[in-house]
Description:
Two copies of one chain form a homodimer. Chain A is an alpha+beta fold and 622 residues long. Chain A is 32% helix and 20% strand. Among the domains of chain A are: 41-221, no CATH class; 405-504, Immunoglobulin-like (Sandwich), CATH 2.60.40; 508-621, no CATH class. The longest helix of chain A is centred in the N-terminal third of the chain and has 22 residues, at 19-40.
Amino acid sequence: MGIHQFVPLAKVTIDDAFWNPRVAANRTASLPAIYQYFKKTGRIDAFALSWRPGQQPEPHYFWDSDVAKWIEAASFCLQQQPDAELRQLVDQVVDKVCGAQQPDGYLNVYFTVVKPENRWANLRDYHELYTAGHLIEGAVAHFQATGSRKFLDAMNRFVDLIDATFGPEPHKKAGYCGHEEIELALVKLYHVTGNQRHLRLAQYFVDQRGRQPCYFDSERPGYNLPGSEKGDYSYVQAHRPLREQTEVVGHAVRAMYIYTAMADLAAETGDAALAAACRTLWDDLTQRKLYVTGGMGSSRHNEGFTRPYDLPNLTAYAETCAAVGLVFWAQRMLRLSCDGRYGDMLERALYNGVISGVSLDGRRFFYENPLASVGTHRRQDGFWCSCCPPNIARLLASLGQYVYSVAPGELAVHLYVAGAAEAEVPGGPAVALTTQTRYPWEGRVRMMVQPSRAAAWTLRLRIPGWCRRSQVLVNGAPVESRVERGYAVLARTWEAGDVVELVLEMPVERVRAHPAVVQDQGRVALQRGPLVYCVEDADHRGSVHQLVLPEDAELTARFDPELFGGMVVVEGQAQAYAAAEWGDGLYRAASVARTGAALRAIPYFAWENRQAGGMAVWLASG
Amino acid sequence: MGIHQFVPLAKVTIDDAFWNPRVAANRTASLPAIYQYFKKTGRIDAFALSWRPGQQPEPHYFWDSDVAKWIEAASFCLQQQPDAELRQLVDQVVDKVCGAQQPDGYLNVYFTVVKPENRWANLRDYHELYTAGHLIEGAVAHFQATGSRKFLDAMNRFVDLIDATFGPEPHKKAGYCGHEEIELALVKLYHVTGNQRHLRLAQYFVDQRGRQPCYFDSERPGYNLPGSEKGDYSYVQAHRPLREQTEVVGHAVRAMYIYTAMADLAAETGDAALAAACRTLWDDLTQRKLYVTGGMGSSRHNEGFTRPYDLPNLTAYAETCAAVGLVFWAQRMLRLSCDGRYGDMLERALYNGVISGVSLDGRRFFYENPLASVGTHRRQDGFWCSCCPPNIARLLASLGQYVYSVAPGELAVHLYVAGAAEAEVPGGPAVALTTQTRYPWEGRVRMMVQPSRAAAWTLRLRIPGWCRRSQVLVNGAPVESRVERGYAVLARTWEAGDVVELVLEMPVERVRAHPAVVQDQGRVALQRGPLVYCVEDADHRGSVHQLVLPEDAELTARFDPELFGGMVVVEGQAQAYAAAEWGDGLYRAASVARTGAALRAIPYFAWENRQAGGMAVWLASG
């Protein structure tokens, strides 16, 4: 099998009962809300470079990246749906951004007007190349959406400057960014420009990272890295060369971004060592450090990883951006290897820990996505550190590019999203695919295949890891399909009008965590299909933290048309600790009585869309 | 019943199998180690006032309190056992301290040599009166140990200055300290001087605290109070007048110190409102915010209290000083009311969360006392913020003063510690008591009563709350004694040679937490007598965090002479999650298999005295 190429956004149409409301809220509510927040806080107008010392607000060194991500999200929307008003606004913002570019190609408001003398002086702490990376991603998306080369050309000039500044040559700085991002952005740029220097610069940043002595030792630090001894750069994944890293460590978002770039480069260059490092790191993440929601980075302290199996629920940091980053990384791993282990995690993150980051109306956001709450954790309109809202916005606006991929002689379906796609099977025909499904509420998927000509090629359909029994039908007849690394392999001569049906059994399941996850011992999470469920006080008489789910309690799934426009809820007869009977004491020898209690669980992503109250993913069991 | 007076340290001798090693390690190891640490770090020599700007180390604003607590601890040791060498050293240190006193009576190294212009300028943040309080406590103990008035007189002059500076009169500052301490110190000083002004000054500080508008609003803050919005002074218990406070909040040590002073004042002045506030706060602490070890203040963030029932084990802050403070407060509550609820908590803290703060050899200290560990939490030789080591040292050196109290016509025994005491029963005879016991290893206590003359008075013996069956014998014959608020009441005519025996059944018990303590749901702690037990990796083949204790597993207590010179261990046949069988995944539907595993629990206070490894107080149950 060769490297997979994902079918680009412009070739995919989404028309899906589950995703349409998410995508629409993103376009009509999140995007304007984020713009307004950035406008109000001065991030947009900062590009005018009119700030003078003493003025408030002072532009921050990562503000440019916020605006760049908004441009990217808006451009993805434009690729999906023409919108003259949005187009005009995006172009205005792009004009402002480009207007801040310096004659030598440099672009960063903070290091132009606030601390021009500090340009490239503290790569570890000041996100300078990170910001460049987001500008590049924004420019690529803007070009793809509009055909305008203005932003793209500006970023090409910026990258020329960066390329002239950083590299292995003696006259260049041997540095790289404390917050990874530019590496994956340069690969995206290369895909558009075909300029090998862009790919080589990404490769340089990846190769150089963690080389000893560490470049950061030559800088004057701006602050102590969280939770790190002096000289320990694991917080920024620079404690040793990336190829030698075996454990996911440090700041979770940075980790996801650099692993994404590593997989990107492995796909572009065939670098087996990078690919192997990615697989090792993937196993460490998914076998030891990932929440059941696809969230990660359990500690607020370093916004990142701690020790294996340390997955507290109430205090889970699980930054939205980190789950978004996992979707990026999983997609790149699927390019390297069409393996269900990657598709499963892409799906897990997307349907749970990513979309929990935004309210159903698109107006409020979580920075942190805990797996339990006592009712005090609420979504916010915006954050001073605004990375998460535009990150989820650009992911939802570009959802189509995570669904299908092609490789020589084959087409793979990774997610089940109703809509249509047009793909070119390398060495095969052009294929129009139409997908009908009520996934994830139901497990039945119907795909109409319209190849441009009858030809033999292979259709790969992901059989999700959560699914124990599945069936594939072609033109109404069951077929015995081989399942290869999590994908049903349908190799045949496809003709126009062929219909493939996939039936995935989707019962409610009790999920248990590895016993080393102390916080989840004696507890179960409920999952149905790709959706992890949670219980909220809003659906219960007492605190959900007092619920106990007997092992033998029957659980039923039911579509509730009244809940948020229609969602499948999970219901059953459970018990609750009789806290009232306990009395005043805090400790006693006698065990705790229980009473009967109806249990009603809703999808995790939909929590905190009613009144404030407790929430729990992991239920006491037994 | 009247107010109880505790039999003073000088009148109590301890000769106890359990406590002798603790007290000896404290005197021979902790006290010299703490002195050396203070000497090495410049805290002792700072009193020479020779610091000049730019020199390192710069004296810190709370250094004086560290040295004062060492003087106090050493003076307590001298009260228990003459020691010419120690006496000489203490007097030298006292000379140094007194040498730093300014002509106007002021004494604080930092505000004399580092920031003299800031004297009394930021009471909220800079511990200036707190430091004065510890100096006063040191002076009182030094006077009681040596008869020398030097330090005491110096502190009287300092208090004169403080009294002239603070108070309700218009020409005085209406302030009080952000870190409470001086309030209880002034009551101690009053007990020695009989000077009503000392009591009134304590009363002023207590009355003034939390009055609106808050005094701290008139200061320029040095930093944001942890976890507090601007203008919220709950971190320092000044959010409202103390009499109106109903919930223990904020920094735990500060809370314990001010509640101690409130109870002190209630006992001295009969202030019923203060006593009532103390009782309400006591209930809030012991019914909602106290670890089973007597530790408290679950959060590192504010070194203090969070919401009710929030008692995480692994991340428990549970500062040693806070448990020490609970012993102080409980003793003062016993003065107000000879009620077992106070004696029980005094005992719980003392035998568990206090003495866990120091290693068995007296050389290493815990600042934090978590109830679970993955092996990374180790005792340290010293801390930059050195409050805990001298705090536990002064408590262990003064243990005798927490054992017996007298009130008109009665003598009460609160703790069962072998040794002797001489007490004057108000309105009754002088009584010499000799106690023999192997408590807490065994539940049998034998007391010989030697009154100066045969007379009728009441002996109160605390029947611990953990004890379900007890028996009292007088001169070998069982007596039916009334138990009044947790104390067996023995009212009779006592004659020389009377022997009282108390038999407390002491089985191993499974303790459960209120179900609102989510972290302890489905878990049990083991307790025998006053001792809370824990399991350590050192005694088990795998991780203790994988142990499961079946509800019906028999648990036996056995004295193990090999363990740390002899301790009772708790043993039984338990199970362990079969983590090895689980495989690579992090989540799955199938439940976790278990295998048989021998369980061996040791007293909590003795943990982390062998190799690094996991520890748990709360065991999975079922």
